[in-house]
Design brief:
Elements lengths: L1 H12 L2 H14 L2 H22 L5 H19 L2 H27 L5 H5 L15
Helix pairs in contact: 2-5, 3-4
Length: 131
């Protein structure tokens, strides 16, 4: 079984989706402007969490930080390089979810699709194993 898992891991590492995601990550990591935005965004989020955890939070400061966070997130969402990373990560996550669903279907477990479907209380409405 471990050998099959290794083969699956190698297949994933050689997939177009994984390659696309790694290229997008590398491009973002090399981009100073995006990294500066991400650093500032993380610092402001941490500061906002800290303020909101205080016994008497400074609401004006929290509002200012929230506005700054919205502005920074907007700048990131306007950046094609950052959007490519998000899209590539989402696509690869969908591949992983599909693989996990297939494994779960084979062992009688719940898939992400079946987990979101409502159960009628008996097996009469169940589609059963897809295999």
């Amino acid at each position: 079984m471990i050998e099959l898992a290794r083969e699956l891991g190698l297949a994933l590492a050689n997939s177009a989706e994984f390659t696309r995601m790694k290229c997008a990550q590398s491009a973002v990591e090399k981009n100073d402007a995006i990294n500066a935005l991400l650093k500032e965004l993380n610092e402001k989020r941490e500061r906002l969490v800290s303020i909101l955890a205080e016994e008497e939070p400074d609401n004006l400061e929290a509002l200012r930080l929230t506005n700054d966070i919205d502005r920074l997130e907007g700048q990131l969402q306007d950046n094609p390089m950052f959007l490519e990373l998000i899209e590539a990560q989402t696509t690869f996550s969908m591949v992983l979810r599909s693989i996990n669903d297939e494994i779960n279907a084979c062992i009688g477990g719940e898939t992400s699709e079946s987990a979101s479907a409502s159960c009628a209380g008996d097996c009469g409405s169940c589609g059963g194993c897809k295999h």
